[in-house]
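Bug report (template v2)

What were you trying to do?
Predict the complex of my protein with calcium ion.

What happened?
Run completed; filing so the output is reviewed.

Input:
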Amino acid sequence: MEKEALYQLSQSLQKWVLEAAAYTRSQIKQPLEITTKSGPNDLVTNVDRANQVFLAAKIKGDYPQAILVGEEGTDAVPDDWESGLAFFIDPIDGTMNFVKQNENFAIMIGVYDHGQPTLGIIYDVMADQLYWGGPQLGVFRDEVPLLLTDNPPLTKGLITVNTKMLVADDLNLQRVFMHSSGVRIYGSAGIVFGQLLKGNLCAYISKLAPWDIAAGRVLAESLGFQVLKFNGQPISMTTKEGMVVAPAHAMNEILAIMQQK
Ligand code: 2AM
Ligand code: CA
Ligand code: CA
Ligand code: CA
């Protein structure tokens, strides 16, 4: 994609995400319609659904050929998702935080052009912080350019881990934790990516769906993080997968510890 067209796309997506966020803020003091999906801790609200419909309609209006994937819309990634411009939408990331805390949630859109990570937008709605950019545009928090990330050893970095995976300890994650500076838990992939991009965290270990990872992957890889499956292979973007996000040094250490018996 030409840089000018990409910049235009970025501006449009930022505008629509900010509009969805304004609506989201307006609904916080209203009674939410909350329903469960797979279990009691897997929630969706009327605002998740409204944001999904709004963002999909805006994208389709300007990009009628767009391939759309969204957690509360068409959530199956089509086989031909690499045939054009694909948009992965998470209309509220951190719905439990949205409901229980009224903060610490994000709206996210990741754009892949013929399968290539192209543009990422993550908006921390209540902190009013917009992370955006990609390999061609650079990465920004609002107007501030973010710099290439440090490459510290695991012993010098804070990490964040999927809570169930840490408790189950089936992948040596407690050993990874013991080799790190400590664990912090956030409950929203988008909020975690903000922390990684700012340099507050060094690694993220979780099992994530395509819409959880799409935007953050674009931004993180643009700043020098790697995003790899537990076996060190690239992630697929088509299914929920275990993955590590970290700069090279910590990545190598984490994957080695996870493979220890
Ligand atoms: P969500 O709020 O958009 O569903 C990491 O915690 C990510 O997993 C979160 O960003 C959250 O995104 C998702 N998540 C959290 N708890 C979940 C659950 N019980 N079932 C499915 N997804 C969950
Ligand atoms: Ca969800
Ligand atoms: Ca999510
Ligand atoms: Ca969501």
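What did the reviewer find?
Helices lie at 3-27, 46-62, 95-101, 163-168, 173-178, 189-198, 210-222, 248-259. The longest strand covers residues 85-93.
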